[in-house]
Structure formats: C-alpha cells, structure tokens
Write a structure and sequence with these properties.
The complex is a heterodimer of chains A (about 350) and B (about 180). By secondary structure, chain A is α+β, with helices and mostly antiparallel strands. Chain A contains ten helices and eleven strands. Chain B is about 20% helix and about 30% strand. The interface between A and B is medium-sized, with 38 and 26 residues.
C-alpha cells in the first residue's frame, strides 16, 4: 500500500528478491551456454541464446506455478511469493527474447512477413503430433504479455482483485500452450528421453503440487459451520488461537479470519483487498492484522487500514461464551466498526 | 466471491493439466521421422519435378573397401531445372572410412587395366575421392548405359588399387 503514487514501492525485501532472481537467471544462462559450447560447438550464437533464454523462461514459469501451492502447504515458502510478479515479468522478458531470436533466425529472411511465417510456416500434418509448434509459442507469449502488462498494482486496483486474479488465471492456458510448444517442437526434433522426461517431470510437479494443495483446501472448506437460529456460528475455543494469531473458519460458504490478541477476539473477511491473500494466516502486528503475502494491514475492530491508507474489508460480530467463540454469519459492510469480544479470565463475556 | 474464484481455479487447473498431459503424450509418441532428403518441396513437386532417384545401391562392389555405390538419375525432371549438377546419370560413392591412399581419383573405363600402374587409355576421370561421406560424380556419355569399370587410382602411389564392375543402367533410367 502506498500514500503518494510510486511506480514500484521498492523496499529492502523487493530489492533482495530481484537481485537474487537476476543472479539466478544470469548464472543459469551462463552455465547453459557454457555447456552447449562444449557439447554442441557447431551451434550458432543465435541458437545458443535462443535455447538458453527459452529454457530459462520455461523453468521460471514452472517455478512460478509451484510457488502458490507450496505456500498453501508450507508458510516457509511465503518469501518466494512476496515479489512473484517481478519473477513473472522476468519470465516474460526471457520469452520475448526467445521469440524475437526465433523470428529473426528462422522467419525474417524469407519473402513472407515474419509474423505470418511464424503462424503459417509449418502446415498441420494430421493428429495432435502433427500440429505446428510455433502458434502455441505465440499464444503463450501473447498471454504472458497481457499478464506482464497488467501486473502493476495500478491495474490490480482498477480492475479489482477478483477480476485481476481471474485474468491472471490464464497463466495456466499459457503454461499449457508453452508445454505443447516445446513438446511439438524441440522434443519431437530431439527425440531424447532426457528432453521429454524433463518436460514431463515439470507437468507432474505442477500437477501434483496443485492437486495436493487443492485437497488440503477442500478438506478445510468442507467443515462449513451451521448457524443457530439467530445466525451465530460456533467457531471453536479461544484456546485454539495463539496470542496475536488467527484461524480461518468457513462460514456460509466463505472464509472468515478470527484473531486473538491482547485478550480480545475479532473476525474479518479472510480476503485481503490487495491480492486476495489469506488474512487468517497472518498475525497481529502493532495492533493490526497483517496479511502474510505482502504485509497489507487492517485494524481488527473495523477492518480498515490505518490512515492514510484506505483499504477495508468486511467485519463480523463476535462473542465469547465460556471460552467458546461465536461469529455472526452475516458480514457487516467493509470497514464497519465492530467491538472485539473480550476474553474473560473465568466465565463468559459478551461483545 | 473468493469461493467462486477458487472453484474456477480448480476447474481451470484440472482441465488444463489433463489436456496438457494427453497432448504431451500424443506429441511425443506420435512424432514422425523428419522428411527424407529426397523429399521435394511442394513448389517444385507441383511442377512435375521429382527428386533424384536412386536406381540401385550396392555395398559389395569394392571388395574390402567399405564403399556404398549408388546410381542416381533425374528421371522425371522437366525443363532446365535439374537437381543433379549433371546432364545425365550420376554415380555416388558413400565412404564409411578413409581409403588410406594418397590423392585418390575415380575413373570410369570400359576395360580393366592390364598394368596396375597404368590407366587404360580409354579411362575417363570422374573426380577426386577423399575422407568419408558421400561424393557424387557425373558419368560420361559412354558410361551412361552402365557397364565398364570404376577405378580408384592413387596419384601418390601412381597405381590403380581398387576396381568395381559397374552394373548396367536400370531400364528406363535417365541417360
């Protein structure tokens, strides 16, 4: 969150993240080209660059796709998620260099427009295996361009997080297109087990991590709480929540984050306004609920970011009886003040 | 809102992962061989031009020397465009290993040499042979019908060191 407009809200963590990202990409490119010079000395410089940046982009895409489910399964991976958008833009830049070199080397010197040549140079020869590989690369690159172009918080704020996330879900279509681009292209050409095995390992890893994370999420969500006649839902004992921490409960189909701090309990929507991060997995820092993804903060008593920031999330009425937490199933409008329930030393208390 | 987004996410990832897996295996297992070198670009094939044809191929003509010999022709080629750099049939030698002789030349002669150090007076020089790989030589007019002999002559050793009887030209082959 920012007060005045800044194109990128640089901080130490972002700088470190980007520095390691660029060092990693640079090292990969150097090692790849070095190995290729030894193994395949006849390859041209253009071919080496084309393959180095193409493989780097594909590996980075797989890493990006794995970060989400890894973070759902283990919070130790959260630092990887912190600046994932810069990783995505880096991946697009590598893909763009790959596409540019490919068009220059293979399509620019004929009598056909290079962009037409990319899409029509290789005819379909029947079946899935006979599909031309270049159009899949173009499709993947176009999607990655749209994502990179709208990756800034400006678009996130203007499109709203749900629309922005729905748009960026097309990364899976880009992934599918680029896997086919490689499978129909260099894998068919090379025919080595190493190449096809590495690509299939990538599919397996991405698929397995997503399936495992989805299973864990499903198990969590299936315990939807049933409200009593007044709309109150039992959310569990106060003792289940460590001090300055939160838990997540599914109430009326949506996740609610319940926090316990300084002898008080409050409930907010689990969805951070920034990128829909899981507030319930954050903690209370300086009296504010802090999102684990990017550190956006909200006051637990009214769901508003501390001034001068203006984000706000829906709040829920809460009461504590005999150490048992009850949450009202109907959310209050975003930013509505709602007194936290006070946890009594003995017996019950009511907010 | 977020619950609906999560369901969409689950559907999209499941669908894409399934399609990608099926397409990946189809692409890998259904890959076909690259077009053979003789394959003709459509723009030429549409004009009735055909690739140089291998009329016959033999690997037993040269005794101990590992040489595959082919007879190629431009049968079917029309107009001025010919894919062989010759006006008639050609002989192709495919050497799997160096011949181990200095400065080797290939000759065609209707007769075998009587003196190993002297080439027959009717010999025609076809070209130089060296290293490994494929070399192609135009046949002179007297050899276009086949027959006669191919001679490998070492300039360095001043002698014929290998001969091969050239089979007759195939019926209908380009002459």
């Amino acid at each position: 969150m920012s007060v005045g407009y800044r194109a990128v809200g640089w901080n130490r963590n972002k700088t470190l993240y980007d520095r390691w990202l660029l060092i990693g990409v640079g090292l990969y490119l150097a090692v790849f080209i070095g190995v290729m010079v030894v193994v395949n000395p006849d390859a041209t410089a253009e071919t080496m660059i084309l393959r180095a940046v193409g493989s780097a982009a594909l590996i980075l895409l797989h890493v990006i796709l794995c970060i989400g489910p890894l973070c759902r399964m283990n919070p130790r991976f959260l630092p990887l998620l912190y600046n994932r958008r810069h990783m995505g833009v880096t991946m697009f830049a590598l893909g763009l260099v790959h596409g540019g070199f490919a068009i220059f080397q293979y399509h620019a010197l004929g009598d056909t427009n290079p962009f037409v040549s990319v899409l029509s140079g290789v005819p379909w020869s029947g079946g899935i295996a006979g599909l031309p590989f270049q159009p899949f690369g173009v499709l993947g690159l176009v999607i990655l361009f749209l994502m990179a172009a709208t990756s800034h918080d400006f678009w996130l704020a203007n499109l709203t997080a749900p629309v922005w996330k729905a748009l960026h879900m097309s990364v899976y279509v880009a992934w599918g297109a680029l896997v086919l681009h490689v499978a129909l292209g260099v894998v068919q050409d090379d025919r080595s087990y190493a190449m096809s095995g590495a690509l299939f390992a990538g599919i397996l890893i991405v698929g397995f991590l997503h399936a495992r994370a989805a299973h864990a999420e499903y198990k969590r969500d299936e315990s939807d709480r049933i409200p009593d006649s007044d709309g109150w839902v039992y959310a569990g004992p106060v003792d289940d929540i460590a001090d300055s921490r939160g838990i997540t409960r599914v109430i009326a189909g949506e996740r609610v984050a319940i926090f316990h701090w300084d002898g008080k309990v409050a409930a907010l929507s689990n969805v951070c306004q920034h990128q829909n991060g899981p507030l319930g997995e954050g903690r209370v820092i300086d009296g504010c609920v802090t999102c684990p993804w990017h550190g956006y903060q909200y006051r637990p008593e009214d769901g508003r970011s501390p001034p001068p920031f203006e984000e706000k999330v829906p709040t829920f009425e809460v009461r504590v009886d005999d150490g048992r937490i009850y949450v009202q199933q109907r959310p209050l409008p975003a930013g509505t003040r709602c007194e936290p329930a006070v946890v009594a030393d003995a017996g019950g208390d009511r907010a | 809102m977020i619950a609906r987004l999560r369901k969409t996410h689950a559907v999209v990832t499941s669908l894409v992962a399934s399609l990608v897996t099926v397409a990946f295996f189809s692409a890998v297992t259904g890959a076909t061989d690259k077009p053979a070198p003789e394959a003709m670009p459509a723009v030429l094939a549409d004009r009735g031009i055909v690739a140089p044809t291998v009329e016959w191929e033999r690997d037993d003509l040269w005794g101990a020397f590992p040489i595959v010999t082919r007879w190629r022709s431009d049968r079917g080629t029309q107009g001025e465009l010919r894919l062989l750099d010759t006006r008639g049939p050609a002989i192709e030698l495919d050497l799997a290993a160096p011949l181990g002789r200095p400065e080797v030349l290939l000759y065609w002669s209707p007769t075998l040499p009587t003196d190993p150090e002297a080439l027959p007076g009717t010999s025609h020089l076809l070209g130089a042979v060296g290293g490994v790989g494929t070399r192609r030589f135009a046949l002179p007019a007297p050899a276009e019908a086949g027959g006669g002999h191919l001679l490998l002559y070492s300039l360095g050793q001043a002698g014929v060191f290998a001969t091969a009887a050239l089979p007759a030209a195939p019926d209908g082959a380009d002459r």
